[in-house]
Amino acid sequence: MQKQKIIACNWKMNKTSSQAVTLLTEIKENLKPLNCNFIVFPPFTALEAVNDICKKANICLGAQNCHWQEKGAFTGEISVEMLKELNVKYVIIGHSERRQYFAETDETINKKIKSVINAGLKAVLCVGETLEQREQGIEKTHIENQIKADLIGISSDDCSQILIAYEPIWAIGTGKTATSQQAEEMCKFIRDSIVNLYSEKTAENINILYGGSMNGKNAKELLNQKNIDGGLIGGASLKPQEISEIANNCK
Length: 251
Ligand code: PGA
Description:
Layout: E1 6-10, H1 17-30, E2 37-41, H2 47-57, E3 60-63, H3 80-85, E4 90-93, H4 96-101, H5 106-118, E5 122-127, H6 131-135, H7 139-150, E6 162-166, H8 180-197, H9 200-205, E7 207-211, H10 219-223, E8 230-233, H11 240-248
Parallel strand pairs: 1-2, 1-8, 2-3, 3-4, 4-5, 5-6, 6-7, 7-8
Helix pairs in contact: 1-2, 1-11, 7-8
Bound molecules: 2-phosphoglycolic acid.
């Protein structure tokens, strides 16, 4: 059976809460009846404001990060319980911008994934190599190491609550997309790594997304690849017509 594609919109640190409502309203107006799992990841401050539109339009709500502790003296942090009460169903974990600018490590990423799973939500784990690593030909070793470290202590059953986004860092926000062959090769490699870590069945069921300058022009071909189950989309998800076009093309 063919899986429903996943279109995940990572708005990053863009849009105030009223601007997020305007953006999602415009997106909704451009969307045909959904043939994909459409998820929006607004900033924390806009989660509550867009919730109503999400419910009415059958759009899922996600957050861009969380802390692994339930509560306590962690100034400035947000727990999974806090997100859950706002109807959040997905949390992006380990985005390369968080690894790069906020010193996130595989160890903290692993803790975050576990807290998301324990709360019954789904984690979108991001992995990806730098341009330097690709030039050195070590992209696969790097991705495999990330996956192994990020999934330590996570059972095969828990994998049903995990999505993996392959996001080559050199393609994020640069307009330089991986070719569909490169993206497919890496997503297949990720699936094979899951076979090795868990089983064929777990690997078959897990959703693997591609992210990195996906847009209205290249999305169709990328999403047509056998091992690409969806897209994690930044820049293009802030453009109502473009993101709707991508979602409307999903079969
Ligand atoms: P981009 O971002 O689509 O703007 O490249 C993707 C991401 O960082 O998730």
